[in-house]
Amino acid sequence: MQGQKHIHLIGICGTAMASLAGLLQLKGHRVTGSDQAAYPPMSDLLRELGIRVAEPFAEKNLEPRPDLVIVGNAISRGNAELEYVLDERIPFTSLAQVIHDEFVTGRESLVVAGTHGKTTTTSMLAWIYEVASRGDGALAPSFLIGGVAENFGTSFQLRETGHGRRGPLILEGDEYDTAFFDKGPKFMHYFPDALILTHVEFDHADIYRDLDAVKTAFKRLVNLVPRRGRIVAYDGAPNVDECVSKAFCKVERYGFKPDSFWRVEELTHAGTESRWKVRREGQAWGEFMLQMPGAHNALNAAAAAALAFGQGITLGAISEALATFESVKRRLEVRAEVDGVTIIDDFAHHPTAIRETLKALREAYPTRRLWAVLEPRSNTLRRNVFERELVESLSLADRVVIAGVFKLESIPAEERMHPERVVKALVAAGRDAALLQNADAIVKKIAPELREGDVVAILSNGGFDGIYEKLPERLRKLAAAGRG
Predict the structure, then answer these.
(1) Closest CA to 264 of 284, 238, 291
(2) Angle in degrees, 0-180, between the axes of helices 295-310 and 315-323, rounded to the nearest 10
(3) How far apart are CA 93 and CA 127, in angstroms?
(4) Which of 269, 397, 472, 484 could anchor a disulfide with 372, C-beta 3.0 to 4.6 Å?
């Protein structure tokens, strides 16, 4: 895009869309957007940027007429603004195509992909480069992340190092589809020079028919990495093995296996702190500390460290960055501590992610009663494909509460998740579990039952009807009233 333009984003409050809005504003464009509903952290980010967000979708939001419209992947035919764009022949494109055209071209592209862990790992990699750039401005990274990286206080950054030099572009490679007119995954537009592949599992049941379809998408991403490039891939999953088996570039495996190129060993946890060592090709390489619990986070950090080192970042900068890494909003984020009750917000919305989150909380709070409060909200979790796995994951908690399925009516009847079946199976397995339809019912029920020392993990990839604010508020009222 040449010159300053008025760019309007339909569905601007999605994590990636809000981040792109910020990047476009940094490039000097006038940015507006619209959405059906806005909630933190992206609504807060856009407000801080001074980007106007119109609610709800309406034709009038496109006045004055923009030069270009970016259509979010959640937007489908029938949307009032999209229909107006098509009728009026206003130029439109997708988020992923704009990222390629405006930001990938002319920069080294470092992509983090996988079913789980990509937001945290991308944030770690960006922070490693940021710390390393203090000694060499040429390393200053630009990035776009599907969450707010707390070290930066934002989900995006655009850095120009001057004299025609540009640091790398670090991207979270999303496997979800691109737009209503482009059903391929977003990451196919990012053309990685180097790639991290964390996990490959079945997800996004609304667009992938089965696991084979998911694996095909990741195989195609691997096939984009040039011979001179490099892939850092998790060593503990057969699906990842299959996806990288025909790569044309060097593949370095990371994980716990004895023969792993980057072997994680001697992992210990003390509260929310993790420590471990890494061997590189069998030789002692580094010792690391991270202020986050969970084996999955140590693996994420090991992947980021491995890619960064291979791209020329020093071990010292990597170690310093991981020790000072401050996590990502909505990843094991402590939202409130009221009357001895700790309330944690986590984005986990897949049985594997839920399992790893609850395991991490067990490690961080080993003597405390753990609650899991789940909203089945993602397009996969709202379907009946993972009910058995969900029972296994939620069994790690002492008390479980499941909300009614978000917008259940939008899922075909034969595909719908039945939370009552999950609750029944949990009770049969000896767990205290309940089904409560909404946030208000959950708060009313559990707030009086919470006691000092309890840890409440609220698991949702959405706003969950304000439960993050409602539960602490109710606990404060109960505390003020002496819980009487």
Answers:
(1) 284
(2) 150
(3) 30
(4) 397
Residue 106 — left, alpha, or beta (φ > 0 → left; ψ -120 to 50 → alpha)?
A: left
Looking at residue 161, its pLDDT comes to: 62
Encoded tokens for 266: 């001697």
Q: pLDDT band at residue 39, thresholds of 50, 70 and 90?
A: low
φ and ψ of 12, to 5 deg: -70, -20
Q: Residue 218: what pLDDT?
A: 97
Better-scored residue on pLDDT, 243 or 3: 243
In the predicted structure, residue 205 carries a pLDDT above the cut 60: yes
The reported pLDDT for the residue numbered 83 is 98
User: Strand 68-71 and strand 142-149: pairing?
Assistant: unpaired
Strand order through the sheet with 154-157:
154-157, 142-149, 169-173, 109-113, 194-197, 230-234, 250-255, 262-270, 273-280, 283-290
Structural Rg of the chain based on CA atoms? 22
Query: Quick one: the chain helix, strand, coil %, rounded to 5?
Result: 35, 25, 35
**CA 168, 171, 174: angle at the middle one, nearest 5?**
160
CA–CA gap between residue 84 and residue 87 (Å, rounded): 5
Question: Can you list the alpha helix ranges (DSSP code H) found in 105-223?
Answer: 118-132, 211-222
Whether the bond into 56 is cis, omega within 30 of 0: yes
Q: Which pLDDT value is given to residue 375?
A: 95
pLDDT tens digits for 111-158? 999 998 999 999 999 999 999 998 667 788 999 998 889 999 888 999
* Distance, CA of 107 to chain centre: 23
pLDDT in tens, 85-97: 999 999 999 999 9
User: Which amino acid, residue 293?
Assistant: P
Q: Can you point out the beta strands (E) in 323-378?
A: 333-338, 341-346, 370-374
Distance of CA 287 to the CA centre of its chain: 26
CA distance linking residue 202 with residue 220, whole number of Å: 16
Question: How many alpha carbons lie under 13 Å from residue 395 in its C-beta half-sphere?
Answer: 15
Rounded to an integer, the average pLDDT of 385-391 is 91
- Whether the per-residue pLDDT at 41 is higher than 80: the answer is no
163: left (phi over 0), alpha (psi -120 to 50) or beta: left
Q: Which domains occur in the chain, in start order?
A: 6-94 (3.40.50.720), 106-323 (3.40.1190.10), 333-480 (3.90.190.20)
Give me the percent of the chain exceeding a pLDDT of 70.
Answer: 97
Q: What is the rounded distance in angstroms from the CA atom of residue 174 to the CA atom of residue 179?
A: 12
Picking from 138, 140, 127, 207, the residue whose alpha carbon sits closest to that of residue 175 is 207
